[in-house]
């Protein structure tokens, strides 16, 4: 073999082609061919029931949830329906899933933090899959005086930002706000009338 043929044999096949040269230097395209799975490192496939149990515990960490919410989460993670139902039943038996307790906690928390009235609270609970009888039971435990106090707190807070508006505009906007929060029109009108009339003249 001549020196010329030997030297040409040693030349990489990408010489003369910029694209091939970049591929060779950066190993571009390697990501399209993932390395084979090492079965020893990967280990056996996770048990579906163990996976589902971990999902439930993660979902319940720091926050109560309805059974429907948890079932929906399991379905999204492709947990077989029979496994999901069995685990949810078990979680209910030990008290980790309790729609009645969840509904009571939700109504008191949302009333105090967001000022929501019964109608809005009922809508939220139904969206979370809580049964109507459980919703009614939770709402029946709310004190009507607390609902009125929450409405007044909302109106008083909003009034602080409405000093430049006339009373008619204030009343219209405040009643609309309370309606969106689920308050009945009679209560909303009474609260707004009282609070607007009680504003100091300098703020009117």
UniProtKB/TrEMBL annotation:
InterPro entries documented for this protein: RecX_HTH_1st, RecX_HTH_2nd, RecX_HTH_3rd, Regulatory_RecX, WH-like_DNA-bd_sf
Organism the protein comes from: Nocardioides panacihumi
RecX second three-helical domain mapped to chain residues: 98-139
One Pfam family recorded for the sequence: RecX_HTH2
Residue span, RecX first three-helical domain: 52-90
Keywords: Cytoplasm
Cell compartments where the protein resides: Cytoplasm
Leader sequence segment: none
Superkingdom, natural source: Bacteria
Protein name from the UniProt record: Regulatory protein RecX
Record carries keyword Cytoplasm: yes
Family classification: Belongs to the RecX family.
Record has Cytoplasm as a keyword: yes
Residue intervals of the RecX third three-helical domain: 146-191
Chain's role: Modulates RecA activity.
Region of interest (Disordered), ranges: 25-45
